[in-house]
Amino acid sequence: TTRTPSFLGLDKATTLLPASEQQSQVIIGVLDTGVWPELKSLDDTGLGPVPSTWKGQCEIGNNMNSSNCNRKLVGARFFSKGYEAALGPIDTTTESKSARDDDGHGSHTLTTAAGSVVPEASLFGLASGTARGMATQARVAVYKVCWLGGCFTSDIAAGIDKAIEDGVNVLSMSIGGSLMEYYRDIIAIGSFTATSHGILVSTSAGNGGPSQGSLSNVAPWITTVGAGTIDRDFPAYITLGTGKTYTGASLYRGKPLSDSPLPLVYAGNASNSSVGYLCLQDSLIPEKVSGKIVICERGGNPRVEKGLVVKLAGGAGMILANSEAYGEELVADSHLLPAASLGQKSSEILKNYVSSSPNPTAKIAFLGTHLQVQPSPVVAAFSSRGPNALTPKILKPDLIAPGVNILAGWTGAVGPTGLTVDSRHISFNIISGTSMSCPHVSGLAAILKGAHPQWSPAAIRSALMTTAYTSYKNGETIQDVSTGQPATPFDYGAGHVDPVAALDPGLVYDANVDDYLGFFCALNYSSFQIKLAARRDFTCDSKKVYRVEDFNYPSFAVPLETTSGIGGGSDAPKTVKYSRVLTNVGAPGTYKASVVSLGDLNVKIVVEPETLSFTELYEKKGYMVSFRYTSMPSGTTSFARLEWTDGKHRVGSPIAFSWT
Amino acid sequence: DHANKKTYIIHMDKSTMPLTFTDHLSWFDSSLKSASPSAEILYTYKHVAHGFSTRLTPEDADTLSKQPGILSVIPELKYKLH
User: Fold this and answer.
1) Which one of A435, A456, A462, A658 is the catalytic residue?
2) Residue A108 known to be catalytic
3) Cβ of A440 under 8 Å from any chain B Cβ?
4) For residue A501, which phi and psi values (nearest 5 degrees)?
């Protein structure tokens, strides 16, 4: 990727970063659509021999052979039996029956995690710079489990199974399904085994935002990653016949529109379909859009497809209008015709102009790449949000990372839009999604693993979370682009990842398999259900009290009781208690607790003890947090942040209260 | 027949493998064949689950789920890239 390494501070000289030899011992397994092995991002110059423990292979297949792997790309396997069983044999004229990436998504995520340094990277000159993955020295292995027809769980299970056997250290999965009990969710089940083998599993939170409770991959042994913007955008100016100009975004780099204003039409008025405003396939009436700029509403079909629909109907340009759900989020696309996306407020003005003007016109101008955009990061509108619908006492997502307009490696099989008709060939593409933020964290986790090989997956995740930041340099809270308001821990979890700080977190909230088994007991899982989820015989101790409240998670989600109506509830304050254990991973020191409320806080928070002294490395100390609250209307939320500091380190945990 | 069949992931209880079997694969195959003689194993899993995946009709899946040693028979799902 370009820009995100510097946005994350990885370009700053720091003695904390592991030596390249340590980092090169770490292998990241990426379950995705495969890889385009000829990418310069997979150059292995300077890398030493592959770790001797590695058992992976470069499987021979359609358009792929064993020589496609090297000291960077150390493994490439594909899993298509489930896909072919469901949809029939792979048509090798359109899809490679091998680990070769025919989609682009897999090449993008893999190079984001651990691509080698490539100078002068860009997409048609946009986002230019030196591209690199987060862990440039780490090795990567690809497990192709997603095909043009989707990702089937029998293939995903086989991919995870093999990745564990091969010996990956980090597993990156930018995929997900609907929420279901842990013992039925193959990603949760597979990740449990992977975690028990010491593998950190990083997954995307999903793109269901800004709807509340829209998360995927919420198992507490998984690191769940949401998406934020970086300080870069790709502005486009949309000037109306009134002379007013509005700023949108675009990656269009083809022949520009003429300087003269063109007629502007709303797609809903140029279609016979009741949802014509979405610019679905064949929905536009050519006579009504020919030579015009067409306003299409976001949603319903891929954004780039809307551009193609307008182009095929004879339109000259397209403006993609955000609805309320997307707010002011500007996701740029490399459309096949001059096109730009526009925020909700400006889109409303445009639509009012079209409906009120007898001859509406517009111009679109493309301004290229802008840097140092502030505020940044902001939480992407599409990034899935808490609360965690499956286990409300575990806060998810865990953290956010760059996931908007990310440039990274791409397949040679399809153009930047991914549309069949797009014949442009590129080595890098700019795309958005929590799919893009997930491999950032996977690569950063590999850096931490290289620096601290003995740390558990939970310790690495804790370091990433407790050092994440939640405010800008001016002290204001990170914003949510869908509202323009301060975001909350339900949007960003512990905050935005800060990898340099994560290398030296001071303290961590560690957890092991026993803790996860205790978590199942706290959920009242039967031995049978635990066996399915954890692949082991385990009976909860009937004499022991298991509580999710005591599960050693680096964040706090506190669902609280609400009144049950007039006369139905008591207004007397109630108290709930959560306990945690901190492990010292730094120098001896005394840490003091402090609690900061984020906005109006309706809860009294007491931490006991208020100070913790550590004299030895890996020494553990416990504490208890009491939350005293009164009843509030259902749906009320409140937020706070607990920090332990020794003056040098800040070990932060978000606290999210929700009255249900 | 193809339209009527779905892929299932079958979790088996490792500890209940009869001593008459020398390896897990033959036990998986025998269990599967007892429910659906024509069914084939797609994958065997070692780490994620102790089990395998296969194509079955809903009726055969139901029959298999009642066999000794079967922990669960979970229908395959399609996940999405994010």
Assistant:
1) A435
2) no
3) no
4) -65, -35
Specify whether A32 is catalytic.
yes
* Helices (H), ranges, A30-121: 81-87, 105-114
Q: How confident is the model at residue B38 (pLDDT cuts 50, 70, 90)?
A: very high
Beta bridge partners of A653: A642
Mean pLDDT by 10 residues, chain A (660 residues): 97 76 96 98 97 97 96 98 97 96 98 98 98 97 97 98 98 96 96 98 96 97 98 97 97 92 98 96 97 96 96 98 88 95 96 97 97 97 96 98 98 95 95 97 98 97 98 97 95 98 98 98 97 96 97 98 62 93 98 93 94 98 97 94 98 96
CA A546 to chain centre: 31
- The reported pLDDT for the residue numbered A600 is 82
pLDDT score for A565: 55
Residue identified by tokens 């100078």 is: A119
Size of interface A-B (CB pairs under 8 A): 116
Whole-angstrom Cα distance, residue A543 to residue A546? Answer: 10
Give φ, ψ of A650 to 5 degrees. Answer: -125, 115
* CB contact (8 A) between residue A32 and residue B74: no
Instruction: Pull the structure tokens for residue A588.
Output: 């001896």
Nearest-CB residue to B81 (from A82, A151, A193): A151
Distance between CA A583 and CA A403 in Å, rounded? 31
Which amino acid would we find at residue B10? I
Q: Please state the separation of Cα A353 from the chain's center in Å.
A: 37
- Cβ pair B80:A175 closer than 8 A: yes
3-state secondary structure of A507: strand
CB burial of residue A597 (10 Å; 0-12, 13-18, 19+): middle
Residue from B4, B10, B46, B48 to probe the interface with A (highest A Cβ count within 10 Å): B48
What is the average pLDDT across B63-78?
A: 96
The helix (H) or strand (E) run that includes residue A293 is strand A293-297
Closest-CA residue to A222 (of A458, A392, A423, A532):
A458
Residues of A in contact with B71 (CB under 8 A): 528, 531-532
For residue B43, list chain A residues with Cβ-Cβ distance below 8 A.
79, 81-82, 154, 157-158, 161
Cβ-based contacts of B13 with chain A (< 8 Å): 531
Q: Could you tell me which residues are beta bridge partners of residue A611?
A: A592
Q: Is A435 designated active site? A: yes
Tokens of A603: 């809860």
CB A176 within 8 A of CB B80: yes
Per-residue pLDDT, A324: 87
A497 touches chain B (CB under 8 A): no
Which of these, B74, B64, B8, lies nearest to B41 by C-alpha position?
Answer: B8
Tell me: the pLDDT tens digits for B11-21? 999 899 999 99
B6 - beta bridge partners?
B56
Q: Catalytic: which of A24, A103, A105, A480?
A: A105
Q: Give this complex's ipTM.
A: 0.98
Model pLDDT, residue A599: 83
Retrieve residue B66's tokens: 């009642």
How far is B20 from chain A, CA to nearest CA, in Å? 23
pLDDT of residue A566: 54
Question: Are A27 and A170 contacting, i.e. CB atoms less than 8 angstroms apart?
Answer: yes
Neighbours of A372 (CB within 10 A): 7
3-class SS at A465?
Answer: helix
Q: At what angle do helices A105-114 and A434-451 cross, to 10 degrees?
A: 30
Q: Is the pLDDT of residue B1 over 80?
A: no
Sign of CA dihedral A191, A195, A199, A204: positive
